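In response to the reviewer comment on reproducibility (Comment 2.3), we provide here a single inverse folding case reported in full, input and output, so that an independent group could reproduce the run without further information from us. The structure tokens appear first.
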């Protein structure tokens, strides 16, 4: 892969995970995924990404030819049970998993400080607190885009954000998703999330000495 292709792949993976966990995936997303939109690498990347890609292939095979509205309805029921509740078993928020802060407590301000330091303001469209998984991935996407356009300092911001935030909670979140649902799409997204964090951590380590 050339540099542009690597950046495109990084952005696509971030978008995929954010789309799955932000809310119930919409029909347009599912139609693309079940149509010609799924292009996965043949080469091995890392264990989590490879396992996530295998589950994605399973999801596509299981739903081949099905009406996307029916697929979405099934996903909506499972998404609500797992992530919305009442009393959902999984909460996709950093401060839910951190032991050094209460849920939506003082740790939220530290997440927001990381955003502000890099000159980024969370979009209002997510309708969740700023430690929500889709918001944190949107910030990561912003940093990757800046890197693509030559902002070397964005690697430093990503290094700090990974060390102080994402890597502190993503493994526990992934474990909970895998424990609580058998839905291939949600399991795939959790594993892709784990693989993306691992990949980004290794990449940034090479860029920031």
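Designed residues, in position order:
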């Amino acid at each position: 892969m050339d540099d542009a292709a690597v950046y495109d792949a990084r952005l696509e993976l971030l978008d995929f995970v954010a789309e799955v966990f932000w809310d119930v995936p919409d029909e347009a997303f599912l139609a693309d995924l079940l149509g010609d939109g799924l292009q996965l690498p043949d080469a091995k990347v890392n264990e989590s990404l490879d396992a996530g890609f295998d589950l994605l292939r399973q999801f596509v095979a299981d739903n081949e030819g099905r009406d996307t509205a029916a697929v979405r309805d099934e996903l909506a029921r499972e998404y609500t049970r797992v992530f919305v509740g009442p009393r959902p078993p999984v909460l996709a928020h950093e401060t839910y998993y951190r032991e050094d802060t209460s849920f939506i407590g003082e740790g939220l301000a530290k997440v927001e400080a990381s955003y502000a330091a890099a000159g980024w303001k969370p979009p209002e469209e997510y309708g969740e607190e700023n430690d929500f998984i889709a918001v944190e991935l949107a910030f990561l996407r912003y940093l990757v885009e800046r890197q693509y356009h030559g902002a070397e300092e964005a690697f430093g911001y990503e290094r700090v954000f990974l060390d102080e935030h994402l890597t502190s909670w993503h493994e526990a979140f992934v474990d909970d998703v895998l424990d609580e649902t058998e839905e291939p799409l949600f399991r795939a997204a959790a594993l892709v999330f784990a693989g993306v964090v691992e990949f980004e951590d290794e990449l940034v380590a090479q860029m920031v000495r």
